Amino acid sequence: MTTVIDDQVLVIERTIAAPPEKVFDAWVNPELLVQWWGPEGMSIPQHMLDVREGGAWETTMRNAEGGEHFVSGVYKTIDRPNRLVFTWAWRQPDGTRGEETEISVTFEAIDGGTKMTLDQRSFADASTRDNHGMGWQSSFNCLEKLFA
């Protein structure tokens, strides 16, 4: 479920059929992350995760045609298995980092697994927010398959 608060905020809830500890670990364990990270059809040929508060992370997403997209950020909060907060910015064609947003993901134990809630903000406009929403929804389809 995607909730629209305003043009600058994206909130997505998804139920994942695994306990919070396992779902949390899928976000921070490189061996798990590469199995679901990125929209459907993407692969992760390169990644670096320094999973500690203040640690940097970076991934390369490659589509079926070989096009690559680079994204990076810094971990702000690591509260396993409850909450993960990190920054997010795409690398621009000139090598600079683009617009930075902050992502908070919470993991709540429920019957049948985990209610995972992603909150990403503050986007420059609704179009950018919506593009990220489509990407996350597709990525979460992959995450669901990881635990199917």
From TrEMBL:
This is SRPBCC domain-containing protein. Belongs to the AHA1 family. SUPFAM superfamilies: Bet v1-like. Residues 17-147 form the Activator of Hsp90 ATPase homologue 1/2-like C-terminal domain. Pfam families: AHSA1.
